[in-house]
Fold these 2 entries.
Entry 1:
Amino acid sequence: MDYDNDGDLDISSGSYTGEIYYFECQDDGKFLQGKCLVDKENVDLKAQSYSITVEAWDFDADGDLDLILGTRISSVELFENIGTREAPIYAAKSKKLKTQGGKPIKGSNAHRADWDGDGVLDLVLGTEWGGVHWYRNVGSSNKPIYGDRQIIVEQPEFKQRTEEEGPEFSGSRSKVFVTDWDKDGMNDLLVGDVQWLNYTLPPLTAEEEAEKMKLQPEYEKLNKVLDELNDEKISYQRKKIEIPEEVNSRYDAAYEAWLPVYRKMSKFDREKSNTHGWVWLYR
Amino acid sequence: MFGQFEEGECDMWITTILLLVTACVELDTPKEIPQFEKPVRIESKGIPIDVTVGHAAPYMHDFDGDGIADLLVGEFGDVDFPVERLPKRIRDESDSKGAFSQGRLRIYKNHGSDTQPKFNGFEYLQAGDGFASIPST
């Protein structure tokens, strides 16, 4: 996006925390480190949800760039630019996007593209559980009105797969980008994902087995202490009472004691998994 | 101008529970699901692009201005995010240190063409004195 209309490409990004980071391109083509976009009161813009993505386009055809946010499991949100194209100022609170029929529009990234080739820009979205959806724009590109949710790529059936087997399709938490990959005149999809593939390590040696057995009682004891303290913290949260500092301190100390032993015990686990993130081409 | 929007806030937990309950029935009946070839993974240097700690987020843009679209891919990352660049509201929380990773952006320059893209490795987007990054967890 050219955030400030100065003729160069700036970059914006969502974040887990729900704030929107902005990387400004300078005259020499280098980028400034990211900073949070703020509202007119200089308060960081914060989505109503978390784990967000962002695209910028002129949603309401008033000549400036608005921010459209995909969220992990909640509605797509929009921060309206109440400033100008050159000097954006964003409304302090986002609005949730809904369909013509009043249903919430949801997706982990909200990408604008003319999916059905009717010349009007639609909304194409990745999803938390995988697959790709779209909402047809039954209005116009300048005044979008979205129809009901439709499927482009179905949510994949969950299967626990191994490294040896490899993946079959795109996985969960999909992020989608519409492109004509091979310029054949038809829309293709790039779909990013996350997947976990399992693998099994060789059996423990006799020495490792003995070491594990020796460590087990201490690990169980530390686990029990940590569980109890966790329950104690939750009990305060359920009562909507602030957790006493003394309880937090005891929990932190228990966690510090538990962590190194947990790490040692984890080394004895034979069933492991790797986290992957691939980019899939659907055409 | 924004008549399609809902102003009210939703409680996250309620939303989550509702989602779990309705996930199987909420989808509108699709008019027609497009048919694709079996999907393939985009490769760089002959092997599938596989970003650090997953959560790949692809985007195509002519980043180097050579007239050919390049591939940009966001990733989760595995390096601690610097506390001083966290949002103000969580910067001073006692447990914020080490709680977030640096989600970065990979730039795969297209060494092929617009009709036959080809990628030979990537560089992370740089910003300021280091990598451009956002907090992920």
Entry 2:
Amino acid sequence: MARARTPRSILPGFGISLGFTVAYLGLIVLVPLSAAFLRAAGMSLHDFVAAVTSPRVVAAYRLSFGASFAAGLVNMAFGLVVAWVLVRYSFPGKRLIDALVDLPFALPTAVAGIALTSLYSPGGWVGRFLEPMGLRVAFTWTGVFVALTFIGLPFVVRTVQPVLQDLEPEIEEAASTLGASRMQVVTRVLLPELAPSLLTGFALAFARALGEYGSVVFISGNMPMKTEIVPFLIITKLEQYDYGGATAIAVVMLVSSFILLLFINLLQKWSRRSHAI
Amino acid sequence: MLLTAVALLFLAFFLVLPLAAVFIQAFEKGAGYFLKSVLEPDALSAIRLTLLTVAIVVPANVVFGVAAAWAIAKFSFRGKSILTTLIDLPFAVSPVIAGLVYVLVFGAQGWFGPWLIAHNVRIIFAVPGIVLATAFVTFPFVARELIPLMQAQGTDEECSAVALGANGWQTFWRVTLPNIRWGLFYGVILCNARAMGEFGAVSVVSGHIRGETNTMPLHVEVLYNDYNIVAAFAVASLLALLALATLAIRTAIEWRTEGSA
């Protein structure tokens, strides 16, 4: 894109469309977001550190990051299987299932939250079978993990699927004819090709899970120190009029998301480059 | 075969089961109770507020999305990739934080709080706050659909139209819009689904005043926390239907574009 040498476009509307875009972006997104950073900058360092490192907050980070990470891993494994099946096999109802994969994107999070809670609570459809085995899901760490797995499900499938579609089965056949075992084909041929998209999907699911609120708050039970996710803690602080505390935690989460976003952008560049070859 | 079974079981467990739970529990006490739950005054007021919010947010984000895509896809300028990244920013922000930042701007303790109180204007715990928080959360949807689409289409057709004497609006309405209509429609559908279902951001700014500032998802929460489970699922089933309709329209558009390609 040789910007400097591009001749002036004969199309009209550049000034007004760019002006409106920047103004709307600023008003709706950038100015409000900067309010969080300015508010946090107005706190003394001591107050800020105290707010973001209190035991209850640290317990919430541990839960949010841990359960999001675990859910991302599960989605990476099953997402790969689902994408594989959707691309390589054909079976009745495949298009319907392909469309259904996006349900977690389309279903309002509160609806997912109450549905999962009713399924996994001790008397629920699933919970009643798990309870005799001594496995409690609702109102425990596992419940948070289940909700975050639901919400992150489409990401890996949707990032891996197009890459798998472009990958020709001939490469695997070539590897097989050259004497590679099925396992070797998977680990030496397929996984290196899919690695960037798998990681991108994982990072997207992880980022989404970190900020997720609606689908988790019903099933988690929100017990301080135990099953309280970070977004819930922010709301709790707000309800106690502890605006500084809420903002400080929010800034930590915002910075984490921005780092993740940067990481995802780098991953996408990497995957584009490995595909260019 | 084994892999297919694993994949289908996983999806059945995580997708079909929760969806079935919503509809079955919505009708647990029969169709009469279902109708009563979705037609009682608080539910109707929640539906009205949700529709009002969508009626403001979706057109605003459509105008923004088209303007952003026009500027980004049809012109080259410095800082374009930064602008594109910034447009996607709301996707990286937790909905709860989206609500929080508006409280910091317009809340009683916020930047404009004292001024707003002095002039008796309510934004937080009122409809404007709900609209703003929803606009933030659904901000990228339309722009995101249109930018890659319009970039792929290039500027040749528009340039020809202008060279043949069309003015800007004629070019847009007669050349650009017909080319992007399905992408635009899809962006609107996604934006609409998310706007109607948004929970976290709205939850922070609404104040949960029954019959006044409860949207449909908030009304579901209130009913559920009151142990009015069947009524909660009745209202939730309307939102689940919206999600299914969104997926159906999406699939239909995909078939259509595949067919024409």
